[in-house]
Structure formats: structure tokens, C-alpha cells
Amino acid sequence: MPVRTADAEWKGTLTDGSGSVKLGSGAFEGPYTFASRFGDDVSATNPEELIAAAHAGCFTMALDAALSRAGHVPERLHTTARVKIEKVGDAFTITLITLELEGSVPGLSKEEFETFAGDAKKNCPVSRALAGTEIELIINK
């Protein structure tokens, strides 16, 4: 199995400096700053946004794979991931990840869809890597 990489570089102080992140594939390269992580700057990325993208993508692929293996090919799956960071004691901590799912799967009941989605939430590789963080699932089928 391949090993995926990414690089990060930071220059300057924490609050006044800035950095850049680059995916090993070259598919994304962009800046990040203190303000993009803890403030209102939306012109740059941050680690939590990248975790959200990874989690949304992984979960959606895992759900599609499970549904397709069971003969229920989705017409559409859409996931929004929200990663919450807050100060806990003296350290910043990712305290909650919310996966909000919309999907259209012909011939599948809402209850069956929820079962497949719950399993994907629990077992996708990114969920497993982030198992120390509360992960909630909201389904809007």
C-alpha cells in the first residue's frame, strides 16, 4: 500500500508568521496562518479544514463502497465535515467532528441507509485514525 505525504513550512512567530502546506501529489498547495486557524481569515487553509476534507472524502468513499458491494449503487452521496477545535485546559484540542450526509440510494430504506452510514462512520480509515475524537453523524436522506 502506498504511503501518502504532505509538507508544511512555517516562518515567523506563531501569531504574526505564516506557513504553507503542500500535498505530496501536488493536487493542493496553499498558505495557512494563525488567523486562518483561530480567527476569521478565510483566505488561507488550516489543519482542521484539511482534516475535514480528508474525513469527508474517506467516509463518503467508504459508504459508497459498502453500498455498491451490497448492490445498492448510490445516485449521489454528499458529506460535509465540520471539525471543532477549542481550548481544553492549557491546550487546543479537536473536540468534535460532525459528518453531515445527504444521499440518494434507490431502493434503500432510510433505516438501511442509516445502518450503512453508521458502519462507514465507524470504519473508514480516517475515522479509525481519529478514534480519540467524538464523531457524530447527521443524516439528511
Radius of gyration: 17 Å
CATH architectural group of the largest domain: 2-Layer Sandwich
* CATH hierarchy, class of the largest domain: Alpha Beta
Poorly predicted regions are none
Specify the structural class.
alpha+beta
Helix coverage percent of residues?
25-40%
The CATH superfamily of the largest domain is identified as: K homology (KH) domain
Please tell me the total number of domains. 2
Topology:
Blueprint: E1 6-11, E2 18-23, E3 29-33, H1 34-38, H2 47-69, E4 76-88, E5 91-104, H3 110-123, H4 125-129, E6 134-140
Parallel strand pairs: 5-6
Antiparallel strand pairs: 1-2, 2-3, 4-5
Question: What does this protein structure show overall?
Answer:
- It is a single chain.
- The protein is of the alpha+beta class and 141 residues long.
- The protein folds into 2 domains: 6-38; 47-140, K homology (KH) domain (GMP Synthetase, Chain A, domain 3), CATH 3.30.300.
- It is built from 4 helices and 6 strands.
- The protein has helices at residues 34-38, 47-69, 110-123, 125-129, and strands at 6-11, 18-23, 29-33, 76-88, 91-104, 134-140.
- It is elongated and about 55 Å long.
- It starts with 5 loop residues before the first strand and ends with a strand.
- The mean pLDDT is 96.
Task: Describe the structure using short key phrases.
36% strand; 3-stranded mixed β-sheet; alpha+beta; 141 residues; 3-stranded antiparallel β-sheet; GMP Synthetase, Chain A, domain 3; 6 strands; elongated
Briefly say what this structure is:
The protein has 141 residues and is an alpha+beta fold. The chain has four helices and six strands, in the order βββααββααβ.
